[in-house]
């Protein structure tokens, strides 16, 4: 069974703290993604990675960084948390289909609800 | 600025009724249009998807209608059930990178 796990379901941090959100997938997928979900805005892509040690900015990368040292693990880092980063964070993964076109089906984790006070 | 516009924001439908959610996009490079279903406390899960060379796709009670010329697509949930109560997101994809709609909260009353 396909599984994407996220290290915490709920997290409360103070302004200025460095925050790490961890995501692990057990499907040997090449592609991994971090989104934030806010009411009325849907899911917005923060960063994604097509391979180990590779990363690309999504639509809202400001204030975030990522790390992918192993294929199964993709970490989202908030260098200095701010209150406007209070949100639901979703990790997703998808396989790569040979032939040059990335697979389109994404599998999501349960999310981490982060509150920054 | 959202590249995929979804409406309505919320929907209440009686059991057995039809739920219809609409999405519109501008970017003609999009080539895959999935719908995701999300229950409270869970991540989104793929429900049904369509590619632009097809005008309609049906899976059980769920149907996607796609209008390439109008750059619009919609989800129809036939014979809606209380278990369909969830938030639904449309999305559009170009080379593995998704743009999501804002979501529609669907409530099916008994």
Provide a descriptive summary of the structure in words.
The complex is a heterodimer of chains A (117) and B (110). In chain A, the strands form two sheets. In chain A, strands 2, 4, 5, 6, 9, 10 and 11 form a seven-stranded mixed β-sheet that branches. Chain A is built from no helices and eleven strands. Helix content of chain A is 0%, strand content 51%. With 117 residues, chain A is an all-beta fold. Chain B has no helices and eleven strands. Chain B has strands spanning 4-7, 10-14, 19-25, 33-38, 45-50, 56-59, 62-67, 72-77, 86-94, 97-100, 104-109.
SSE layout:
The complex is a heterodimer of chains A (117) and B (110).
Chain A: E1 4-6, E2 10-13, E3 19-25, E4 31-38, E5 42-49, E6 56-57, E7 64-70, E8 73-78, E9 87-94, E10 107-108, E11 112-116
Parallel strand pairs in A: 2-11
Antiparallel strand pairs in A: 1-3, 3-8, 4-5, 4-9, 5-6, 7-8, 9-10, 9-11
Chain B: E1 4-7, E2 10-14, E3 19-25, E4 33-38, E5 45-50, E6 56-59, E7 62-67, E8 72-77, E9 86-94, E10 97-100, E11 104-109
Parallel strand pairs in B: 2-11
Antiparallel strand pairs in B: 1-3, 3-8, 4-5, 4-9, 6-7, 7-8, 9-10, 9-11
